[in-house]
């Protein structure tokens, strides 16, 4: 795991697992931020660890993912080598990712109950204003990311939230979203281990033409964050999927146009001309995504009440929200901003009289 100051993360990986006797060893693993100690016979293997997780934690092998560092990386059943002795893992850090059968069933039921036809949320139009700033406030409230959500079970979620806030408030991103009238209910971070294989790393995902955008903020080992401009370029890529799903020429033309607009309007960095710039199109081992997608999991991470920052600046609960609820929250935030614009316009009108 990334942070050395996480209260749940041991400071020395070698101290996580120690022999308990001549015939037993004790292996320590991390699961959703909690430290778990499991005892095994001294000749136990990786297959025995999987069986123990299934029986003691009710996480079936199909849901198990083990991040073993250093060197072994991501392992999941059926293992390429299930006979690896657990005694050779005593000095390694082992992170278990996976949900119980009950959690998966509950999530599936929530998604099934919320699959209703998508309808546009009613938005009260703002009163026309003599002030250009009032119009900008309304546009920024409408064409934005209405809810930001870090993954609470990864270390230091407040850092991920700050990263998402920086992306939302980026002058270039805001200008591009206004220009293309993009409104995204939820911007969240991606768990690197869930989208990493031996062949590729997925950098972003866009669901249902902009209902949810996921970004790969962290490094593979959770020990830091990726370069900001690389992530921002991934966000430009995902915003283009609001219009086009497949990676065809229309998609790439729009993607490159958004990238140019973001760089041009990033006044905090001084702005720059990028008319002749060659744009990065990822190689096989690191892919932006596999095109716009629909269906699948909507609520990410584990259960429990979680909070995120809305575009209005306040905190809202997003623990276990369904698709319908997330869209409703976004509509509520837009209505709140519209009322603020109305009040601002009335004050401007009184000042002109």
UniProtKB/TrEMBL annotation:
GO terms for molecular function: proteasome binding. This is WLM-domain-containing protein. It comes from Lepidopterella palustris CBS 459.81. Residues 1-21, 113-135, 334-353 are annotated as: Disordered. Residues 136-336 form the WLM domain. It comes from the Eukaryota. PROSITE patterns: WLM. Residues 7-20 have a biased composition (Low complexity).
């Amino acid at each position: 795991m990334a942070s050395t100051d996480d209260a749940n993360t041991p400071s020395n990986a070698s101290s996580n697992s120690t022999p308990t006797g001549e015939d037993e060893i004790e292996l320590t693993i991390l699961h959703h931020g909690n430290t778990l100690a499991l005892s095994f016979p001294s000749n136990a293997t990786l297959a025995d660890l999987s069986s123990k997780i299934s029986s003691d934690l009710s996480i079936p092998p199909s849901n198990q993912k083990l991040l073993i560092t250093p060197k072994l990386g991501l392992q999941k059943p059926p293992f390429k080598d299930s006979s690896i002795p657990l005694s050779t893992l005593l000095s390694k850090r082992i992170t278990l990712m996976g949900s119980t059968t009950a959690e998966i069933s509950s999530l599936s039921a929530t998604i099934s109950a919320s699959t209703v036809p998508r309808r546009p949320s009613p938005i009260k139009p703002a009163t026309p204003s003599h002030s250009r700033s009032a119009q900008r406030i309304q546009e920024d409230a409408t064409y934005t990311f209405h809810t930001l959500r870090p993954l609470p079970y990864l270390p230091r979620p407040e850092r991920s939230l700050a990263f998402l806030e920086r992306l939302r408030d980026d002058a270039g991103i805001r200008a591009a979203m206004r220009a293309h009238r993009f409104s995204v209910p939820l911007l969240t971070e991606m768990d690197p281990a869930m989208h990493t294989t031996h062949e590729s790393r997925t950098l972003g995902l866009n669901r249902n033409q902009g209902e949810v955008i996921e970004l790969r903020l962290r490094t593979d080992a959770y020990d830091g964050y990726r370069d900001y401009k690389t992530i921002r370029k991934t966000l430009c890529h995902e915003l283009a999927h609001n219009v086009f799903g497949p990676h065809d020429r229309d998609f790439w033309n729009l993607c490159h146009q958004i990238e140019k607009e973001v760089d041009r309007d990033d006044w905090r960095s001084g702005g720059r001309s990028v008319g002749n710039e060659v744009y990065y199109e990822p190689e096989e081992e690191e892919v932006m995504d596999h095109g716009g997608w629909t269906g699948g999991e909507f609520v990410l991470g584990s259960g429990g009440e979680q909070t995120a920052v809305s575009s209005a600046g306040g905190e809202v609960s997003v623990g276990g929200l369904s698709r319908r609820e997330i869209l409703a929250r976004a509509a509520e935030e837009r209505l709140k901003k519209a009322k603020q614009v109305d009040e601002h316009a009335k004050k401007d009108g009184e000042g002109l009289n």
